[in-house]
């Protein structure tokens, strides 16, 4: 009788233990599932904050591979270094920020993009020439001989009324002697008038006839003088030469008015019209301006220079210009047009594109590709890429139009815009930064014909921490004495293929 209650009690205890165990297992599994899910949600929704600076972090990345982003800190899978945070308060900005002190050291100046009403125009070159419409000729009206030539060579300056040549005219002797004989014979006035008419028909000047009446002596010489002040542009005779009726002895070109022949590029040929204003200067004195209006467009395009010629008349009363001068010409349009202008020194032209360094609203600098038009004085027209009121860098010290600038400055700015913000601050080794060469100390881990692997110390100029990485050798036989395990000081620079070593020497020899 007593065994049954004991058996029943044992069964109850066993069942209670079984239920308790099952409940514990189920509860543990549920708690595990619930806890795991909570951790996952917490991890997904956690606010990523840098405990050191209390700033919100967008992501972490390896500075050597900036395009690869990570959700949490840790060691870089690419290099032997820790991932670096990119903060929310600057991760969305583009461009590069330069320390104010460094801006002053670099001499950076800013200019504002502005819109201005200017007349459509362009720059060209022009050449001064004699005004052929003002040229005079010295011509013989008789047949004779050059008795004396006063003009010795072409391009000789002469004044109005100056003698050019003296002619001996033997045919003048007979009519003059006949006139004197009639006058001595007391012939009637009709005979004398007929004799005078004959002398005028033979081109004997009235002055010679008057002198004949006054002196009673025949003259066989006549002096031909310059009709204008200028230069003898052509001289076609020499002393003693015979000249015939109507022969041109010389040509005299005036200098008070000159032609300016402007070479118009073929691409602008359709935009040029008579009446457009021209402002011309020459290199010896750019403050002197000579103005005029295009009088006519000469037909035909030069096959050698592919230019169209336009002609105008300019005033040269002061005789400062001479034919053949090369002049800088600004051809202005007939109507004013609005242009967006920037200083010409702010534009970097690479050959394939034109770039300006623009200043963002938050003070960062960013390269902007622009389309440029014509130059307007010291400014350049911008067709696209900028807007009125923007600021651009316009300092000659910063925008050096050189291969070094185009291959290093612009890619670094664009790299900063793509990979996140960057800041330039004054460096403790400005000479090394300027030369793009960096130095540090490290232990040689591996040497191959193509590179050397170092476990090196931080490189502050590049923002690198201590890491292990490989550097290219300039040649397979370079640095033959370097062995694994040595501690060395090495220098390197950035190249198209990565980072290339320029110097490796033992620490004991480094100064």
UniProtKB/TrEMBL annotation:
Task: Describe the location of the Heavy metal binding domain by residue ranges.
Answer: 59-86
Which residues belong to any copy of the CusB-like three alpha-helical bundle domain?
171-220
Which InterPro entries would you find in this protein's record? Answer: 3HB_CusB (IPR058791), Beta-barrel_RND_2 (IPR058792), BSH_CusB (IPR058790), CusF_Ec (IPR021647), CusF_sf (IPR042230), CzcB_C (IPR058649), HMBD (IPR045800), MFP_Cation_Efflux (IPR051909)
Q: Does the keyword Ion transport apply?
A: yes
Looking at the record, the residues that make up the CzcB-like C-terminal circularly permuted SH3-like domain are 341-400
**What GO biological process, any one, is recorded here?**
copper ion export
Domain CusB-like beta-barrel: from-to ranges: 257-333
Which Gene Ontology cellular-component terms appear in the entry?
membrane; outer membrane-bounded periplasmic space
Name the keywords, alphabetized.
Ion transport, Signal, Transport
The GO terms describing molecular function are: transition metal ion binding; transmembrane transporter activity
What residue range is the signal peptide? Answer: none
- Record's superkingdom? Bacteria
Keyword set includes Ion transport: yes
Coiled-coil ranges (or none): none
- Residue ranges of domain CusB-like barrel-sandwich hybrid in the record: 136-253
Q: Its family?
A: Belongs to the membrane fusion protein (MFP) (TC 8.A.1) family.
- Identify the NCBIfam families for this entry: RND_mfp
- What name has this protein been given in UniProt? RND transporter MFP subunit
| Organism name | Caballeronia glathei
Q: What is the lineage of its organism?
A: Bacteria, Pseudomonadati, Pseudomonadota, Betaproteobacteria, Burkholderiales
């Amino acid at each position: 009788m007593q065994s049954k209650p004991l058996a029943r009690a044992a069964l109850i205890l066993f069942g209670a233990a079984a239920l308790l165990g099952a409940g514990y297992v189920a509860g543990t599994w549920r708690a595990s599932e619930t806890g795991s899910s909570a951790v996952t949600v917490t991890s997904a929704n956690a606010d990523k904050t840098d405990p050191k600076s209390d700033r919100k972090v967008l992501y972490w990345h390896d500075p050597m591979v900036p395009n690869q982003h990570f959700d949490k800190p840790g060691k870089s899978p690419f290099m032997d270094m820790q991932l670096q945070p990119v903060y929310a308060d600057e991760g969305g900005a583009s461009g590069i920020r330069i320390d104010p002190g460094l801006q002053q050291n670099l001499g950076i100046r800013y200019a504002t993009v502005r819109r201005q009403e200017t007349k459509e125009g362009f720059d060209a070159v022009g050449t001064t020439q004699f005004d052929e419409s003002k040229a005079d000729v010295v011509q013989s009206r008789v047949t004779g001989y050059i008795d004396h030539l006063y003009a010795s060579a072409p391009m000789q300056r002469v004044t109005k009324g100056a003698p050019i040549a003296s002619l001996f005219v033997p045919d003048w002797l007979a009519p003059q002697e006949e006139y004197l004989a009639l006058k001595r014979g007391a012939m009637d006035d009709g005979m004398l008038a007929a004799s005078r008419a004959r002398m005028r028909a033979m081109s004997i000047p009235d002055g010679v006839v008057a002198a004949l009446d006054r002196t009673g002596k025949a003259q066989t010489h006549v002096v031909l003088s310059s009709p204008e002040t200028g230069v003898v542009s052509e001289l076609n005779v020499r002393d003693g030469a015979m000249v015939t009726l109507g022969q041109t002895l010389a040509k005299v070109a005036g200098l008070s008015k000159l032609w300016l022949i402007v070479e118009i590029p073929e691409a602008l040929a359709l935009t040029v019209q008579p009446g457009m204003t021209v402002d011309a200067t020459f290199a010896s004195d750019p403050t002197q301006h000579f103005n005029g209006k295009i009088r006519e467009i000469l037909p035909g395009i030069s096959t050698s220079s592919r230019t169209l010629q336009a002609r105008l008349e300019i005033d040269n009363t002061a005789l400062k210009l001479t034919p053949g001068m090369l002049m800088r010409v600004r051809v202005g349009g007939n109507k004013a047009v609005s242009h967006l202008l920037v200083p010409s020194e702010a534009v970097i032209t690479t050959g394939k594109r034109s770039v300006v360094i623009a200043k963002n609203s938050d003070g960062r600098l960013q390269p902007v590709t622009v389309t440029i038009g014509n130059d307007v004085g010291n400014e350049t027209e911008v067709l696209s890429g900028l807007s009125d009121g923007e600021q651009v860098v316009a300092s000659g010290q910063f925008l050096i139009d050189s291969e070094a600038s185009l291959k290093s400055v612009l890619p670094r700015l664009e790299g900063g815009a793509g990979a996140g913000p960057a800041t330039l601050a004054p460096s403790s080794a400005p000479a090394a930064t300027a030369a793009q060469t960096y130095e540090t100390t490290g232990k040689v881990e591996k040497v191959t014909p193509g590179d050397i692997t170092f476990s090196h110390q931080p490189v502050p100029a590049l923002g690198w921490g201590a890491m292990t990485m490989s550097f290219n050798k300039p040649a397979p036989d370079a640095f033959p004495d370097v062995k694994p395990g040595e501690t060395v000081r090495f220098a390197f620079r950035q190249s198209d293929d990565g980072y290339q070593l320029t110097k490796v020497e033992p620490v004991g020899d480094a100064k």
